[in-house]
Amino acid sequence: MKECILGIETSCDETAAAVYDSQRGMLSSVLFSQIELHKKYGGVVPELASRAHIDKIDEIVQEALTAANVTLDDITTVGVTAKPGLPGSLLVGACFAKAIAGSTDKKIIAVDHLEGHAFSACIENSIPFPFLCITASGGHTSMYTISDFGKYQTIATTYDDAAGEAFDKIAKLLELGYPGGPIVEKRATEENFVDHFKYPRGDHKDINFSFSGLKTAVLYDLVKRGAYDLKTKTLLDTSEELKNKVCSSLLVCIADVFEQKLKIALDKHPEMKAFAFVGGVACNKYIRARLKNWAEKEGLNFFVPSPKYCTDNAGMIAFVAHYMAQKGQFSELSFDIL
Ligand code: KG4
Ligand code: ZN
């Protein structure tokens, strides 16, 4: 059945909207990033995030419709992120979507943000099922086996911090700014990805991730080198040289950890035909190259979305809502956010 989906995403610090048409594919995907707003706090401030969503959502939805060259009349279904995320932020998107659907008599679909990420590599690629997928973002690090659209099993998660969170927190420790991932990547590139400090890679046999230990290991390594004072919580050695060395060692360590976990996953699930690397951390060129190399050695096709579908976006939400609509999986207008 022909569907024209308006996707809305406000789970964290991006106000995003997209239009996906069942015959013509993705017609638009636009967003407003609140990074500048949260930068000075070194992380997302929930209260500010929800207020900024309220401020922007109307404009962003209109922008998505205009860029797609459609009007609200052309939209058949509204898909909106309902979980997981910051409650105040999710509520803005959900209420806005409900208002549109309710007042114009359209169908609505509550979408799981993580399902959005998991299928984000399918927007631009035809990936053979079943495939293995790692979602690595600021809030989540999970691994899935995916057997069809909407059919997936979580085979690993993180016990504590997400991979992106490790980049962000360690960058904060080094007084490098927010978000940490792109800054760490730039400095690691300058350092030629040399693994100077050989941080611990964690449990080789456990398929689940743990990045909080890595953050602590980096901290204590700095203390050991006389570069950080625990009592006053100050970085004593602020040299570019040290910062670059930490960034380089950190990036190599995280890439190694992903590779380790993938090996365990493939041993357990040898039927996998491809591997998709998604989420904000998948913007990282070094980790992409390492995992592509690994996948190809294992005979798996490797897929990664364009950067605009790696970080939070509404395109992935509209895409999931589209295949859910095709299966008749609509939500009640009274659905709650989680
Ligand atoms: O997917 P995303 O936009 O938001 C969440 O759902 O969390 O991911 C944001 C995360 C941040 O932690 C950021 O540091 C990380 O993705 N990130 C990167 C890179 N670009 C963004 N991490 C490593 N290398 C990058 N180039
Ligand atoms: Zn996300």
User: Helix- and strand-based class?
Assistant: alpha/beta
N- and C-termini, Cα separation: 30 Å
Helical stretch count? 11
Q: Assign the CATH class of the largest domain.
A: Alpha Beta
Strand content: 15-25%
Could you say which small molecules are bound to this protein? Answer: 5'-O-[(R)-(carboxyoxy)(hydroxy)phosphoryl]adenosine, zinc ion
Number of domains: 2
Mean pLDDT: 97
CATH superfamily of the largest domain, by name, is ATPase, nucleotide binding domain
For the biggest β-sheet, the strand order reads 3-2-1-4-5
Low-confidence stretches: none
At CATH level 3, the topology of the largest domain is Nucleotidyltransferase, domain 5
Shape type: globular
Give the beta-strand count: 12
DSSP helix fraction = 40-55%
Q: What is the CATH architecture assignment of the largest domain?
A: 2-Layer Sandwich
Radius of gyration: 21 Å
Strand count, sense and barrel status of the largest sheet are: 5 strands, mixed
Query: What is the string of helix and strand elements?
Result: EEEHHEHEHEEEHHHEEHEHEHH
Tell me about this structure.
With 338 residues, this protein is α/β, with parallel strands linked by helices. It has two domains: 134 residues, 2-Layer Sandwich (Nucleotidyltransferase, domain 5); 176 residues, 2-Layer Sandwich (Nucleotidyltransferase, domain 5). Helices cover 43% and strands 20% of the residues. It has a five-stranded mixed beta sheet with strand order 3-2-1-4-5, with helices on both faces. Helix 2 packs parallel to helix 3 and helix 5 crosses helix 6. The two termini are 30 Å apart. The chain binds 5'-O-[(R)-(carboxyoxy)(hydroxy)phosphoryl]adenosine and zinc ion (ZN). The site of zinc ion has 4 residues, from helix 4.
